[in-house]
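Structure in, sequence out. Go:
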């Protein structure tokens, strides 16, 4: 038996599997389709029109998407009723060929708040059952998500060429139901189909408009081939904006965003931008959407919102920025680990008596070879910091550059592991990514 939700049916892999199941298996294979009329956000596309027809006709509509694949089909309206499910499973348990059991359920059934607001309750933090309010306090200050939502609404209002594309993940950038209504025709939801979203964005860019693709980093890896083949080979100016890219964002093994740097910074033509402050983030986003030369991937910072003056343009590709000039040790701290670089630099100066150089690389996908070469004259150690796995990531590119020289390099980041439900701060401690532990390592070298 296989179980799939209606939201997942829009993914290409689901259709590939139905194609094989219906025509090739010839076995007692039971596919349970749990249809609660909801993906993560609302559903979009022709598949869902057919599911609606099937529900309204009690499974008798002549137009039947599943039968077109060669599958037998049975419908059960009372999908939340155990007795009804037992009866329908008794009917199909001895089937001699693949069959779809299409059950209609109510998302959130039994908890009124979840029944009424299905999208908000798709996922939640620990909450008080009586009120529905979170029991975890993240504060009420500004966030990169709220900054993003405001930016997108303003940008779309003032530029009719901007098209927001998402594979069912509008809330990754704070685009709720009301915000999506404001976007109107400048908003496309492909349902849970990342490959299609990237390909559509490439087509939009090729035809002269300005696509902004938004989702979580963990889901983008499904579209690696489309990013490489459809976007980057053609140098299509698509902006891909990823949330939950950080070590302390989503911490369960199936939703980790920590592999993004290693995965995507090695695709030719793709410019990967890693902002270190709110101002830098908004300026990167604005520059990327309006430029026509490069496909761009932007990693939304995962830490608390920081403020610092930033450049307006990033057309000088792979140009790093020296934020503090010093000596002996250069700290190259990428993206939302820049603040950790600041802390380490201050601790080195306080405890070891010299001021290290602090570099904000901004670009995760390439090297500023001129800057790296210049560091050789007054520095003997380079420390890289990145919010992702070290293997194949940003820091190793710098270490490789310095390989033939006398420059020592320490790469700090996460291990190539499938971490699962871990304590983020304890993880940093174990990896030596704290100001105190960085100072101790510097003492042994300098």
């Amino acid at each position: 038996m296989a179980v799939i939700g209606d939201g997942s049916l829009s993914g290409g892999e689901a259709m590939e599997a139905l194609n094989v199941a219906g025509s090739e298996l010839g076995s007692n294979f039971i596919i349970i389709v749990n249809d609660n009329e909801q993906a993560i956000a609302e559903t979009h596309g022709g598949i869902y029109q057919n599911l609606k027809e099937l529900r309204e006709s009690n499974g008798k509509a002549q137009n039947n998407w599943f039968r077109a694949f060669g599958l037998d089909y049975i419908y059960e309206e009372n999908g939340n009723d155990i007795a009804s499910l037992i009866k329908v499973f008794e009917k199909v348990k001895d089937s001699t060929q693949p069959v779809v059991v299409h059950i209609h359920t109510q998302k959130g059934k039994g908890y009124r708040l979840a029944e009424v607001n299905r999208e908000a309750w798709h996922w939640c933090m620990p909450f008080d059952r009586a009120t529905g309010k979170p029991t975890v306090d993240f504060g009420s200050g500004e966030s990169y998500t709220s900054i993003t939502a405001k930016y997108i609404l303003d940008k779309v209002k003032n530029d009719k060429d901007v098209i927001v594309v998402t594979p069912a993940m509008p809330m990754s950038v704070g685009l709720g139901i009301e915000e999506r209504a404001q976007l109107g025709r400048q908003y496309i939801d492909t349902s849970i189909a990342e490959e299609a979203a990237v390909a559509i964005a490439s087509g939009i860019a090729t035809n002269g408009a300005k696509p902004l693709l938004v989702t979580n980093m963990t889901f983008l890896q499904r579209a690696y081939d489309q990013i490489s083949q459809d976007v980057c080979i053609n140098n299509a100016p698509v902006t891909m904006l990823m949330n939950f890219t950080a070590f302390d964002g989503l911490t369960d093994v199936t939703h980790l965003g920590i592999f993004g740097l290693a995965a995507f910074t090695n695709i030719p033509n793709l410019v990967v931008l890693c902002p270190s402050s709110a101002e830098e983030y908004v300026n990167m986003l604005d520059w990327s959407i309006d430029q026509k030369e490069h496909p761009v991937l932007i990693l939304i910072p995962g830490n608390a919102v920081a403020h610092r003056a930033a450049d307006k343009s990033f057309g000088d590709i792979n140009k790093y920025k020296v934020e503090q000039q010093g000596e002996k040790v250069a700290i190259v701290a990428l993206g939302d680990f820049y603040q950790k670089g600041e802390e380490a630099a201050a601790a080195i100066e306080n405890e070891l008596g010299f001021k290290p150089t602090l570099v904000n690389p901004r670009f995760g996908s390439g090297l500023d070879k001129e800057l790296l070469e210049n560091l050789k004259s007054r520095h003997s150690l380079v420390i890289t910091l990145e919010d992702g796995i070290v293997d194949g990531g940003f820091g190793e590119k710098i270490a490789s550059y310095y390989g033939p020289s006398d420059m020592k390099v320490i790469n700090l980041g996460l291990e190539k592991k499938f971490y699962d439900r871990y304590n983020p701060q304890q993880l940093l401690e174990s990896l030596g990514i704290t100001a105190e532990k960085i100072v101790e390592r510097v003492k042994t070298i300098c």
